[in-house]
Amino acid sequence: MSGVGGYGGARVLVTGGLGFIGSTLAIELVRSGAQVIVLDALIPQHGGQLYNVAPVRDRITVELADMRDAQALSRCVRGVDFVFHLAGQVSHGDSMRDPHLDLAVNCVSTMNLVESCRQHNPSARLLYTSTRQVYGKPRSLPVTEAHPTLPIDVNGINKLAAEYYHLLYDRTYGLRSVVLRLTNTYGPRQHIQSDRQGFIGILIRRALRGEALQLFGTGEQVRDFNYVDDVVAAILRAAQTPECYGQVWNLGAPRHHSLLEFAALLSELCNVSYTTVPFPDDRRIIDIGDYYGDYSAFARATGWHPRIDLPQGLASTIASYREHKDHYWA
Amino acid sequence: MSGVGGYGGARVLVTGGLGFIGSTLAIELVRSGAQVIVLDALIPQHGGQLYNVAPVRDRITVELADMRDAQALSRCVRGVDFVFHLAGQVSHGDSMRDPHLDLAVNCVSTMNLVESCRQHNPSARLLYTSTRQVYGKPRSLPVTEAHPTLPIDVNGINKLAAEYYHLLYDRTYGLRSVVLRLTNTYGPRQHIQSDRQGFIGILIRRALRGEALQLFGTGEQVRDFNYVDDVVAAILRAAQTPECYGQVWNLGAPRHHSLLEFAALLSELCNVSYTTVPFPDDRRIIDIGDYYGDYSAFARATGWHPRIDLPQGLASTIASYREHKDHYWA
Questions:
Q1: A100-121 burial string, b = 16+ CB within 10 Å, else e?
Q2: Could you check whether the bond before residue A280 is cis, i.e. omega within 30 degrees of 0?
Q3: Which of A136, A149, B29, B142: disulfide with B294, CB 3.0–4.6 Å?
Q4: How far apart are CA B256 and CA B222, in angstroms?
Q5: What are chain A's domains?
């Protein structure tokens, strides 16, 4: 990653900073010369772990606190220049099994954050990582930001409400907030031990363990994939682009791939077979079919383009997980 | 009100049933022969009062409980045929001053309700009264259900999330849910003692007291007004129209009126003057400008049409408040 300037000396807070994308962001920020506070509740199963920030552990402040606790939050937001809000529950399936937890972690926590910024640090710039899940089943492809939102799981609803809080506080109180709608992000440090973070983590774990890969449905569903370093680059650019404030922006990739193509790449890297199986009921009802997003507006506004294609990114990912096996999939 | 059949012998739950629209609905349901349970937390300032159901007090069950309490809710939903979910915080201004309460009362309570129905009574039919506030400032008029949603206050965001919960549980779990987006409802039993329920209540109270009316801005903003009996008729029809399930529907009126016209009617009824004043800051930021909705889809689906125009409805409203002065504006 390169070309990101302007964070030297900046004071930044990364919520969910021990998670997959949050830790990768925190590490990059430290390399850019920022003073980084990482806030994480380490909620079991949400995927964060201290090991994720091992490369910069002695250069960041780690605040173990739950954002549902407004007091802890207000301590963290005071005096920072940027708040990158990545904390949250991301499992679609879990959001259906425990909708109350999803509501608390995604809505209540986000409300606490924007309120805390309004009260204690209204000049901070906020960036929220949302999800393409807010669109539901696409009516047309590629999906632009103007596509209607009809979430098909509890997580999508709560993430959408959290987006709206950011936009509202930007418009109403002058907090500068950007919302990015991420698509399928993959790469090192993702939580792949359990099945909670979607098919990418499941397939990668099985491939690493030499197990056959199973794809739900025909396997012909297409997705756009972003390597985590590209997502971090997008986050860093968006937060420094005034044109981005008060808006939602899609990320995406120049090429989309079917799940079969994804599995074929993994299969080659790890020498495993793959096959398709019928959708289990609880997956089928929250499946969105084909998806790929139009990120051209964001590219125009920020100059961001993904640099790492899927074959390259998956190779790096597998190499990294092999090197750090004990912490991710042993 | 007439022409509503099919509730004779039905067991129904009305949440927020001591409030303005809820109590009017409960009374009409009793008249239709339904067995009515009214659930209300009587949260101070939310506008409910026992006197609202005085005409049917001895023929309904009143359950004083808070929907944030999932246990109380599960007791109430068991065995009912219909759930009319009208409970909630409706003040736009209050939602900005206490966003956490609004979130709890509108999102958490609604989540409790749909979860409770899924677990204890999945064959119940649900109807949720949402608001045109979810659209934000209209981009085009009249506003159809396909208009983008960009709420401009916390209340609009939380009501929108609550809508989505209903639609999700309909699509995913087979609960049959209808969402109505109400516009400006007026009539007897509205909470007009405080300023919390919008300009209608404020103007009516002032007119009744013989005080001059003040309109914010130019007074030329237009709105569509529904008399409460028409809204109750819409609710009763919608819940019995299978075509309505799983969808959102606008209410509305065949004519729209400027606030100046509204004030002129009140002025004539109560012999008071009216004038315009600049918007206070906290009102201006959540003002939506002109609004009127397209309710033709709902009219086609259900045959519903508003029967009472504004002059007629306002006259009835003022007469009713004069008769029940002690309970509403003394």
A1: ebbbbbbbbbbbbbbbbbbebb
A2: no
A3: B142
A4: 6
A5: 11-190+226-253+292-308 (3.40.50.720)
pTM over 0.90, yes/no: yes
- Spell out which residues of chain B touch residue A246, defining contact as CB-CB under 8 Å: none
Phi, psi dihedrals of residue A141, rounded to the nearest 5°: -125, 150
Considering only alpha carbons, which residue of chain B is nearest residue A247? B150
Contact predicate B115/B70, CB 8 Å: yes
Q: Residue A230: what residue type?
A: D
Is residue B90 helix, strand or coil? coil
Q: Do B151 and A165 touch (CB under 8 A)?
A: no
Cα–Cα–Cα angle for A71, A75, A81, rounded to 5 degrees: 135
The residues of B whose Cβ lies within 8 A of any Cβ of A are 96, 99-100, 103, 107-108, 111, 115, 146, 148-154, 157-158, 160-161, 164-165, 167-168, 171-172, 285-286
> Which of B103, B115, B150 comes nearest A108 by C-beta?
B103
> What totals of helices (H) and strands (E) does chain A contain, helices first?
13, 13
Interface touch A172/B152, C-beta < 8 Å: yes
CA B319 to chain centre: 21
Q: Are B128 and B179 in contact (CB under 8 A)?
A: yes
For B136, nearest residue in chain A (alpha carbons):
A168
Provide the 3-class DSSP secondary structure of residue A182.
strand
Query: Distance (Å) from the C-alpha of residue A55 to the closest C-alpha of chain B?
Result: 38
CA dist., res. A85 & res. A239, Å (int): 11
Element at A245 (helix H, strand E): none
Determine if residue B106 is left, alpha or beta; phi over 0 gives left, psi from -120 to 50 gives alpha, anything else beta: alpha
Alpha helices in chain A (DSSP H): 20-31, 70-77, 92-97, 99-102, 109-120, 154-173, 199-208, 228-238, 259-270, 281-284, 296-302, 310-323, 325-328
- Per-residue pLDDT for chain A (330 aa), expressed as one digit of tens each? 334 558 999 999 999 999 999 999 999 999 999 999 999 999 877 789 999 999 999 999 999 999 988 888 999 999 999 999 999 988 888 899 999 999 999 999 999 999 999 999 999 999 999 999 999 999 999 999 999 999 999 999 999 999 999 999 999 999 999 999 999 999 999 999 988 878 999 999 999 999 999 999 899 999 999 999 999 999 999 999 999 999 999 999 999 999 999 999 999 999 999 999 998 887 777 778 899 999 999 999 999 999 999 999 999 999 999 999 999 998
Q: Are strands B257-258 and B222-223 parallel, antiparallel or unpaired?
A: antiparallel
Nearest to B308 by CA among B233, B207, B244, B206: B233
Contacting B with CB below 8 Å, chain A residues are: 96, 99-100, 103, 107-108, 111, 115, 146, 148-154, 157-158, 160-161, 164-165, 167-168, 171-172, 285-286
